Amino acid sequence: MKKSEGYAHGKIILIGEHAVVYGQPSIALPFPATQIRATITPSEMNNLTIECMFYKGLLNDMPELLDSLKKVIEVSLKRLNQPNAFLHIKIESTIPAERGMGSSAAVSVATTRALFDYYKQKLSREELLDIVNIAEIIAHGNPSGLDALMTSSSQPYYFIKNQTPELIQPNLDAVLIVADTGVTGQTKKVVQQIATKLNQTDGSHYQEMMTTIGELVKKSRLALTHNQAEELGALLTNTHSLLSQLGATSPELEQLVTCALASGALGAKLTGGGGGGCMIALAKNTTEAKHIAQNLTQIGAKSTWLYEMSDLS
Ligand code: PMV
Questions:
Q1: Is residue 168 within 8 Å of residue 221, measured between CB atoms?
Q2: Helix axis angle, 229-245 relative to 204-225, nearest 10°?
Q3: For residue range 268-295, what is the model confidence (pLDDT) as tens digits?
Q4: Are 89 and 40 in contact (CB under 8 A)?
Q5: Rounded to the nearest 5°, which phi and psi values hold at 215?
Q6: Fewer CB within 10 Å: C terminus or N terminus of the chain?
Q7: CATH number of this structure's domain 4-159, picked from the four choices 3.40.630.30, 3.30.70.260, 3.40.50.12280, 3.30.230.10
Q8: Inter-helix orientation angle 251-262/229-245, to 10°
Q9: Under CATH, which number does the domain 170-312 receive?
Q10: pTM
């Protein structure tokens, strides 16, 4: 039986989420500890069916929650000149959904790759990002394009919306802890809430915060590439405070950030869209990182991961 697979992984925004939507820089890392696989086989019936953790059935009957997946399939099939494809598309994922790890973009990347492979068509990087970003408009409303890039690349990037992303070469002896609150955060909603704040008559204060986050990102790039873990930690914590003032945090995120800092982290912040989802903390070394992760688990983190920053050097 004909069969094709496409893969993508999660991503971690080190710094710059939300401000990146407004043209400020951001730094993001691939997160291969979490993965998505899309598998395509011919459909046994003459129809197009989907199987994933949220739904099993016809493409046309999919719930609204999966609109971006529907869009990515429709756009890909149109570009492949296969409007009446009879396929079964199965999505398996270890990327927790709606937790700031780019799961919607990763599903789109894996599915697009699998579809192009199934029809033996070349898929350029530009076309992949173009297709995924069309679906991301549905998932996020006003995507920066960062998630599409990061879930399909295996290297860290310094990213500014609508500019060619720059590869960066970290040089940092430190360990990042990623912790999941276990609570979903809806990126689209948080992005819209922040847009409302920026557009209100006295929104200039929030505009300034975006510029400040951009400055912190530029400093973080230096710290990340010059082995300055303490400086980077402080920059992450400062950014978290600005993101909180913008309304991107949640009680669960606050609890984990406070716990990480009290447990000796060099810095901590939410990562991704916020409103729930994941946070990150920076630790001097693996021993400290394990201790911090243990404390986070004890106060309710659903999952934790350790990310050796030296692996990126
Ligand atoms: O929550 P995630 O993983 O989709 O990340 C969103 C990142 C934002 O900066 C908030 C939005 C964007 O499009 O860049």
A1: yes
A2: 160
A3: 999 999 999 999 999 999 999 999 999 9
A4: yes
A5: -65, -40
A6: N
A7: 3.30.230.10
A8: 160
A9: 3.30.70.890
A10: 0.95
